[in-house]
Amino acid sequence: MNEQKKIQHILLLNFGGLGDEILFLPTIKTLKKLYPTSKITLVLEPRGKAIKNLTSLINEVKVFDVKGKNKFFEFFKLLLFMQLNRFDMVISSGSNKLIPILLFLSGIKKRYGYDTGKLSQWFYTKAIKLNKNQYAANMYHDLLDDLTLIDKICIPKIDLNNKNTNIFPNSILIHPGVSKISIQKGIVKTIEVGKWIKLIQKLLLMGKVVYLAGGPDDDEIISQISSQIPNDTQNFVNMYGKTQNIVDLANLISSCEIIICSDSAPMHIAIALNKKTITIFGPTDENKLMPKDNWKFIPVYTKKVSCRPCLWDKRQTTCQNLNCLDIDIDDIISKL
After folding, report:
1. Rounded distance, CA 276 to CA 230, Å?
2. Contact 267, 17 (CB under 8 A)
3. How far is CA 35 from CA 9, 23, 88, 137, 295, in A?
4. Numbered ranges of CATH 3.40.50.2000 in the chain
5. Which of 319, 203, 215 has its CA nearest to residue 262?
6. Which fold, 171-333?
7. What is the pTM of this model?
8. Backbone phi, then psi, for 78, in 5-degree steps?
9. CA 127/CA 227 separation, integer angstroms
10. Which has the least CB within 10 A, 42, 97, 205, 223?
11. CB 127 within 8 A of CB 105
12. CATH assignment of 2-144?
């Protein structure tokens, strides 16, 4: 109890996209159990800030563009922010070897992060062993190993203000897109548009009601699909442009029976809503990005190539041939 009273303001650093922030939610949930009266501030990148609309666990979100053009200035601003606010504890999920020095200079007494070498061992209160060979939500939760013996049940959960209990009958949501940031970095994680079109056409022939969704980054692929499947097609509902924000998308996912998508933020939202999720995987590792042994969360990947998964562990961009994304449409349909 005394320890709970001492820890009243917790700072969390988790730089990444919206999917990374969703995967971080079980860690935050456990912290709220450990320190129920504490205020939690989450520091993140601009691309992850929508998380504040999907959970009530976070009291405050602070955005620092530490991977942008002015990253050194952003790190300096972050240091000033930490020094000017009275945080009792800081936990960082970053593996950058300079982060331990930054947190030490902040003056925060309790500092936790991954063991990335001597600097982390010197400057963290406790350097936690980094185990990347597991579901990413479990990996993040390892950061609390020195604080709790609470069993890990690391499937993220998000909050929707509108508790929608109406499920569209016989419905399948198709979300074909991935972020443009990924594409700009040379990372391809989705099947070609022709396969999406064939998948939708087959689903319609099966009598399914197909909803199509996407965000601003998906305008090109949505336009190509719409040119082959007109909006007046029976049982086809084009929701592009009708979901104005991440909460609208989450409500749409909640309303459909099944979602079929690529490895992207909508997949993490669907998992956090406990929705049946069929995800197409190419270069990324399904074992690190989806909970295992759960019938609702189904990865689809080709077994024709032995080099996958490769992204992040073996290479930082996808290769040219993309054989790992040569997935048979019938393989996807068989998972329904």
Report:
1. 27
2. no
3. 9, 20, 11, 20, 33
4. 2-144, 171-333
5. 215
6. Rossmann fold (3.40.50)
7. 0.93
8. -65, -45
9. 53
10. 205
11. no
12. 3.40.50.2000
